[in-house]
Queue: 3 jobs
Job 1
Amino acid sequence: MTNNKSNMLPIVVMFLLFFMIAFVTNLCNPMAVIRPEKVAKIAELKELISTSKCTVLVDFRGLTVAQDTELRRKMREAGVHYSVVKNTLLRIAAQEAGIEGLEPVLEQNTAIAVSPEDPVAVAKVVCEFAKTNDKLKVKVGILDGKVISAEEVKAVASLPPKEVLIAKVLGSMQAPISGFVNVLQGTIRNVVYALDAVRKAKESA
């Protein structure tokens, strides 16, 4: 009987060692315990926030079905991708994309609005909708891979849309050089005003 116990001891030790190695491996690599469909969703989110010119994270708690439908319609019209996301999956996607600073806001309900081309469009749609629907709250934004505050998202929303900027530049080409300079000065002035608004908001916080 004693011999049998002695023979079993190495097997038990090996089993425990194998279990510990597997546990540590999964702990160090969260993706190892995520189902394939979730891995695909993480890859999709990573692609969205990595290639987007601007991404806005919002809390939509309290919106009615009608309000949510209207918001989604406005997003589609502006060419903005809008979807509800799981905080856990977005956290992993952000980590893989090298985006830092989202962790504090990844709680409660989260939806993302993503614009692949025009950073102003997505910020403008969200902020204008929030003016008349106070249940929609801006959490943060991601601009060219960097996390920006809700106030900075509002500052971006105050800038002219890309199409307006292009039209102004094209129009100024047909005018004297002074007209082109005025367009540039006006655009720079808008950016300065927007950044100043962010500075004042941070100082008063």
Job 2
Amino acid sequence: MIKTRITELLGIKYPIIEGGMGEKSGAKSTIAISEAGGLGCVRTDPLHRIGVTNAVEVLKRELKETNESTEKPFSVNIKASRYLPSEGITEQYRQCFELTLEEVEKDSSLKRKLVAIVTSAGDPRGYAPRIKEAGIKWIHKITAPRQLERLLREGLRPDAVIAMGYAAAAHIGWAHLDSIVFIPSVVAVARNEGIQFIDSGGYCDG
């Protein structure tokens, strides 16, 4: 067990969090990571890229499978972007969010284990208040310090942020800030506001 503020916040043994990596982050990987002491993450994105026409039904099935297969904490990743390449995809993500809250409300077991919703790749302002109202931890992925600063100016305070510099696969955000430059600047903002910080990608300890 490794005790950190993040492990205490999320009720996990190790400060390791699965990313919502499309078809790579299904129920099976979520269960395995949570069972091993990290925080597994059921994804909703990018299911349209692998030919899934009903992301909501897939999410419902995977939430059920995860909930029935582990007693450990896990999370769900919701893409917040309004600008997606295929018509109807944005609406499916909104429906995935609504489904998640509905399932949590009617299932006490899921409510206990689904400890966080991770918003990513867009504007989370339409999601954040409702996540907080549901008693779920809110984690938001950012690619530039100004994204966190804007949320704070608008009175929105994530429980934690995941900072994704360009070394984190270089597939999200337009800032193109290398992690080694980006991470310290986010830490400074998060620390001043008492927000927990999670680094994402591009590092090893030798």
Job 3
Amino acid sequence: MALSLNRFVTWFFLAVGILATAYVFSASAVPYLIFNEEALAKFDGRRAWIVVHVFTASIPLLAGPFQIWMGIKGKWPAFHRRLGITSMVSIAISASTAFYLAINIDGPLGEAAGLFGAGVLWVFTTSMGYIFVRRHQYSKHMDWMIRSYAVTLAFVTFRVFIMIGKAIKVGTFDERLTVAAWSSWIVPLLITEVLIMQRKRMNQQP
């Protein structure tokens, strides 16, 4: 019963996450990918950087749920491996552009630091996942790639926290940007750690 409930909760939140990602992606990413002038105007002088960043970030963002599912189920290992390599290369490129955009941001220093930190954790978690798959330690590989995807979701959660801050009218706009920049990856990582520990405890049960 507990196992069934845990699976239900896991799949429920996964479904909600996919729907939220699809909504934010269509509202916030697509305008850059179709070269919307209004969206790009905010990045005058950095248009190529933001387009490359959004395009390459979109690959692991959209592929992540399917990668995790294939990894858990052991489905289509060759395709899983190729898509994983594609995602890692995309993350390397997207993180590089994220560093440039964070350093040259038009917002507060706290926002820049938070987004830069997200880029560092993105590279670190993905690199750890790669190291463990090369060592054939697949369980640890899975844990680190789930953490990597939690950081990938910062693209989504950043905008969610902005909307929450605007709705409850707490702090100034710059303060809300700073809180969102840090919370966008800290909160998902904390939730991810709880889920990983819960999965390990369940696997240890007789």
